[in-house]
Design brief:
The chain is an alpha/beta fold. It is built from 14 helices and five strands. It has a five-stranded parallel β-sheet, with helices on both faces. The chain is globular.
Length: 345
């Protein structure tokens, strides 16, 4: 039977070597990015990697640079490489349409491009509302804004994954073993591909950094509370969620504490994984009431200042915060935390 592996990981420099090792076990690689006219030239060596990355509108230039070097090597080894992300492809075309003088009423409402436009418009409005509320609103109003955005974002992700599953299905069937790049939030893509492909292809999901997580920390995954909230809405859109307020509250604290700058591994291996594990484990300790008390203090602080405040709060309450490196922590097995109930695989 043909096989497809959905490799779930964020775009971080430290994931590249793990992705490369797994990609080599497959005949074809399907990247989570829209087609780019210069990509084939870069793979063939006709365009320098540095020059190609400079043309990209990317939040993660170090990741893109390292991945391009890997992809070029894989291409030379005979592995087929494709860029397949219809949602983002439609989004690029919308931006081009608007930049050339087009207006929303000029979009055809009967094609996916228009649906992408509507979802992006809705999500952008909800995100702006969250930013406004997080600046001036009460804690409870901000929690509600988080939940609104997460619900809208969950619908956007479901639509995006459906488009990608439809595009990937016929391509995957041309190869005996396919590697599909996907961000962690897209694991529902696995379910959609299984539904589309039936018994013709065995589709398996892999959290790319799982081996690292198991050796470094006590969390079973690298989902922050906001991602867990979004995933729960994706999986159970019509079921009331008793944890949504707590997850939204913790997401507010998590977002203030997590380091957002791209960091390449240097003296310390896996800086992003370590940071995410630390912050995930810390916010799991916070009750809704504690988040409510911390939020007014943290809302205008910078990341490092926020981390200090939360660490002091937990220390005063007799709990650990950033007290030991993740590599020294004991791995906890068997016991589920209340916010850990999403277990995709």
């Amino acid at each position: 039977m043909k096989k497809a592996t959905i490799a779930l990981a964020e775009h971080r420099p430290e994931t590249v070597s793990h992705a490369a090792a797994l990609m080599r076990e497959h005949e074809a690689v399907f990247l989570e990015e829209p087609p780019d006219a210069l990509f084939a030239r870069m793979l063939a060596g006709d365009l320098a990697v540095d020059e190609y990355v400079m043309t990209l509108d990317t939040e993660y230039p170090e990741f893109s640079h390292s991945m391009c070097i890997v992809l070029r090597k894989l291409h030379r080894e005979g592995i087929s490489i494709y860029q397949v992300e219809p949602y983002l492809e439609h989004l690029v075309s919308i931006h081009e349409f608007f930049s050339s003088g087009g207006a929303p009423d000029g979009l055809d409402p009967h094609i996916p491009q228009y649906q992408v436009y509507l979802r992006e418009k809705e999500a952008t409005a909800a995100l702006l509302d969250f930013y406004r509320t997080a600046t001036d609103g009460t804690f409870q109003q901000t929690v509600e804004a988080v939940k609104r955005f997460a619900r809208i974002d969950s619908r956007r992700f479901v639509f995006r994954d459906r488009l990608r599953a439809e595009a990937l299905a016929p391509m995957i069937q041309r190869y005996s073993k396919s590697y599909i790049e996907a961000g962690q939030i897209h694991f529902i893509l696995m379910r959609m591909l299984r539904q589309t492909l039936g018994d013709t292809v065995a589709v398996k999901g892999r959290f790319l950094m799982d081996p690292v997580v198991r050796t470094l920390g006590i969390s079973r995954h690298l989902f922050g509370p906001g991602d867990i909230l979004t995933l729960r809405y994706m999986l159970r859109p019509d079921i009331p969620d008793p944890l949504e307020d707590l997850l939204a509250a913790r997401a507010l604290i998590y977002n203030k504490m997590i380091r957002k700058e791209e960091t390449a591994p240097s003296k310390e291996a896996y800086p992003h994984v370590r940071d995410e594990l630390e912050v995930i484990e810390i916010v799991k300790q916070l009750t809704f009431a504690e988040c409510a008390g911390l939020f007014p203090v943290l809302r205008r602080l910078k990341t490092e200042e926020a981390r200090t405040v939360v660490a002091q709060h937990l220390s005063l309450s007799g709990r650990n915060a950033f007290s030991r490196p993740a590599s020294k922590r004991r791995v906890r097995h068997g016991r589920k935390n209340e916010a850990d109930e999403i277990s995709p695989f």
